[in-house]
Amino acid sequence: MNPWHKRANEFIRDPVELLPLIAPQPIHHFFKGDCSRLFDRLVVVVGAPGWGKTTLARLLEFPTLLAMREFSGRNAEVKALVSSLSNAGVLENLHPTVQALRLPAGGQLRSIWELPYDERLRHRLLRTMIQAKAALGWLRQLEDAKIDLDTVKVHTVGVGDAARDDVAADSIASFRQRARDTERAIFKLVGALVPPTENQLGEQLGGLAYEPFAAIEAFAYMDLRTGEARRLRPMLILDDAHELHPSQLADVDLWLRDREVKIPRWILTRADSIDLAEYRRVLSEGDRPAAPGTQPGRDRLTVGLQELANRDRGSFKSIAEDVSRRYLMPLAAFNRSGIASLRNLLGAAAAPELPAGDLRSIESDIDKLMRELGVTTEARRAMESNYPPGLTADVTAGLTRIMLNRELRRTPQRSLFGGAVQDATDTDDAKRVNRAVATGAELQLLHQYGRPFYYGFDKLTEAANQNIEQFVTLASALVDNLETQIVRGKSPRIDAKQQDRLLREHASNLMRKWDFPYAPRVRSLVNLIAERCLDITMRPNAPLGDGANAYGILHSELLNLNPQDDIARVIQFALAYQALVLVEPYECKGKTWALLELGGVAIIAHGLPLSRGGFAEGTIAQLRTAMEGL
Question: Distance between CA atoms of 63 and 40, rounded to whole angstroms?
Answer without folding.
Answer: 22
